Amino acid sequence: MLKATQKYNTIIVTAFILWIKTYIIYKLSFNLPTTDWKQELILFINPMSSVLFSLSLVFLFSKRIRNRVTLIIAFLLSLLLYVNTLYYRFFNDFITVPVLFQTNNVGDIGNSLLAQLYWYDIFFFLDLVLLYFVFKRQSFQPVAVKKKNISKVLLTALLLLIVNIGLAEIERPQLLTRTFDRELLVKNLGTYNYHVYDLLLQSKTSAQKALADNVDVIEVKKYTEKKSAAPNPDFFGLAKGKNLIVISMESTQQFVIGREVNGEEITPFLNDFIKESYYFNNFYHQTGQGKTSDSEFLIDQSLYPLPRGAVFQTHPLNEYYGTPEIIKEHGYYSAVFHGNNKSFWNRDIMYKTVGYDNFFAEQYYTINEENRINYGLKDVPFFEQSMKYIKALPQPFYARFITLTNHHPYKFDEEDQMIPTYNTDDPIVNQYPVTVRYTDHAIEQFIQNLKDEGIYKDSIIILYGDHYGISENHDEALEQVLGKEITPYENVKLQRVPLIIHIPGQEGKTISKVSAQIDLKPTILHLLGIKTEGVHFGTDLFSKEHKELAVFRDRSVVSNELIYTDETCYDRKSGKQLSSESCTEIKEKGLQELKLSDGVIYGDLLRFMELAKNS
Ligand code: GP9
Ligand code: MN
Question: Whose CA is nearest to atom 9 of ligand 1?
Fold first, then answer.
C-alpha cells in the first residue's frame, strides 16, 4: 500500500523561514544589544506576529496564485529589511515615514549607498529563490481557504503580538511613548511592527496642526522668555552693520582640531585661525535625521529639529521667525551658497519660507568631471567660484556657505590628498582626515580671498561643524585613532563640533562653556546689536547669563556639571558615574524643551505669535 506523502503548507514554511531570517538579520545588520535572556526572547519572537499577519493576505487570493502571492509578500518583507539595513549602515538609524518622502535627496545619496552594498547582500533574497523552486514540488501546497485555517493564522498572530507587547511592556515600561528611541522600539516590537507604529505616529503629528490654537504658543513664549539671557554690553552690537559670513563645515567633529596624523596637522589653518578668534571647545551639534539641514534649522531658528524626519522636508511651509527675516528688517541682504542641487533637503522651498533673498546652488557654478566629487562641487572651486557672487552682494549681507567635500564616504582625488590616511581596518575612518584637511585648505584660501577683496575686515566670520562625521558604526577603528574606549559618556563628548567666531579687532580666546547649535541665533543677533524677540530656545554665548545646556535629539543632555545619556548620569568632567537622581533636573529640562519645541513645529504655532503678543 502506498503511504500518503506528507503535505507541507507553504504559508507555514514561508513564515518559519522569514521569522528565522529576520532574527538573523537583526543580529547581523543592526546593533540591537540585549542584556538578558528575556530581552533576547522578545527580540526572537517579535518578527513572528507581523510575518503571520502579512502572510494571512494570501487567503484573499485564488488557489492558483496563492503560492505566488506568498512569495511576493515574502519578497516585500525581505526588501523592507534590506532597505532598512542599507539605511542603517549609513545613518545608524531606522527609516521613518518622513524619511521615505525625502525623494529629493535620493539621487545624491546614491554614492553613499553604493559604498554600503556588499556581495553577500544576496543572502537577503536567496531563501526566496529556494522557496520558489521548492514550491514547485507536489508536496508543497498552498493553505486552503477555510474558516478554521484563517482563524488559526490570525489568532496565532494576535496571540504572539499580545505576548510580545506584554513582555516588552514589562521589560520597558512606557515603550510606546518613548518614540524618540527607535532602537528600543525595533528591539521590542520588531522592524515590521515598528513601521506600522511609525505610520500611526505620522497620522498623529499630521493632526496636531489642525488642533493647535493661539493658547499653545503662550506657554512656549513664557518658557523661552524666562530662559533667555540678557546681552553682555561688551559684546552687544560689537559687529553692528558688519557682514556676517557663516560657514557650515560638513561632518567636521571637534576631535580633529589640533590633532595630527603622522606628525601632520589635520586642520593647520583652523588651528591658527582659532588663535585670533573666539573658539568654543565644548560646542555640541544637536541634529537628528535631517543632518545638515537640521543644523541649519538650529542655527537660524534656535528651535530643535524633529525627532523623526527632517523639518526642512516635513514642515517647509510653517511660519518661522529666523535670522534671515529678522536681519532683513535691519537692512541686511541674505544668501546661501552650496555646490549641490537646490532641492536637496528641500532647501529651495525652505529658504524661501525663512526669508533668504537668494540661494546660490548648483546652477550658479561650473561643475564638471574634474571639479566634482561625491555629492557635488569640491570645496576649493566652490569657494573660488563663489567670490564673484559675494563681491556683488549688497552690503551688509548675511552669507552662509555649506561645504560638501568632507562627506561620507570621504572620497578624494589623489591630487587633493595633503595628509596621510589613518591606518586602521576601516576605510571610512582612514580617509576622514584627508577630506577634513582638504576643506581646511579650501577655507584658508577663501579667507585669503576675502582679505584680498577687502571684505574680511568688515565681516564677522563664524565656522561650525554641522554634525558628526564618524558614526558609532565605526567606533572600533575610531578607538584606535583616539587611543581610548568609546563608552556612552565618550560618545556624547564625541558629538562636539568646532565653533569659531572671528570678530575683526578682537583677540583670540578659547571658551569652554557648554554650548550648542541652538545658541547661535541669539548670539549672532546680539553681536549685530539686535535685541532678540519671539521664541528661541538657545541663549547668547557671550552673555553672562548664558545657560549651559545642550539637549540632543536622542534626549541626552549636557550641562556644566553633568552628562545624561542612555539613562545614565555622569560627572561631565571626570566621566564618573553618578546616581541617576543627580541628572533628574537636566533630564526633565531637556524633555520639556524638546516637547515645547516639537509642539511649535507640529502645531505651526508661530503663526499665532501676533495673537500671543496681544494676549
Ligand atoms: C547635501 C549636503 C549633505 O547637500 O548638505 O547633507 P547631509 O547628508 O550631511 O545631511
Ligand atoms: Mn552634513
Answer: 292
